[in-house]
Amino acid sequence: MDGEEISAVFSGSADAVYRYMEDMQWVTDPPMGMSETLVTSADVRQGFAILHLAARLSDTSGLLLRIGERVLGEQDAGFTRYDEISRTIVVRPDAEVLRVMSVEGARISVLADMKFLVLAAGDFYRRYGAYVRAPGEPQNTVEPQYPGVPTGQQESAALAVASSSMSYVWGAPGTGKTQFVLASCIRGCLEAGERVAVFAPTNNSVEQVLRGILGAFGEDGVPKGIVRLGVPTKGFLAEHPDMCEDNQAQMRIDGCARSIGNLEEVLYERACDSVRAQLEHLTSAGILDDAEGYADGDPERERIIGDIMTVASMRPSTAAIMSEGVPLSEAAR
Question: What pTM was computed for the model?
């Protein structure tokens, strides 16, 4: 099979899978091709709701909001803000949806359409499938560098990997597939001046393989030039900070900064709700009728004014207004 045939077969298969998933999407529960994240609780406020998720969202593109059997698109749900650290997402649907969400026991979840991954695979093979080739015979045969004395099966597997263009190694857990066979072959490649790329389906798998490989170098020390691409776990980043990408640390810092900003927004909105209720109380009681400044007066008014000043100081713009001595009746507007 040449590159053109590979491109046609794989891109056509991706298109067929996508059509099937689209046709069958709402037949299954959860919908086929969708990632569903349950909402553990909904804090329904005036005009919006803060949803607390059972897990982090796998993707934030193409989000849908599911309430019972009703599914709302991104625009109708009004997705506003997502914080992956606190696992909360803010939505601004219409009043009727908020009313349903406030009912105890309502089943609420956030759906993410993952079919775009199938489209991406098909697009990849349409663009680059013609360049795909089966691996050729290795130009140089490397000698595995064993971290210890191998068993017969370990030695046989390592030699097959080191001398073949493609190999498949199977073994039960603990038989040394990673920490002996793979590690000895990679060590042999590095000592021969070769470059090696290691791939795994998940972050944890990548780091398990890396730890096994690093352990094979023992007292000789880990060679320089090993780079762990992608997002490392906190533990691996702490163990091997020089091995991880610099931009990953910056991404974590940026993510924390966004989370702080989101939490400050939530706190400010809740504080504003409290102040709004207190202002309504002052208005209904007639306490604001003659309020022109911050002079001493009714103790209840002074207490509520203090709360308002506290909330106003949370934002530079409102803090500036209050510091300029704007009358309360005007600032409250």
Answer: 0.51
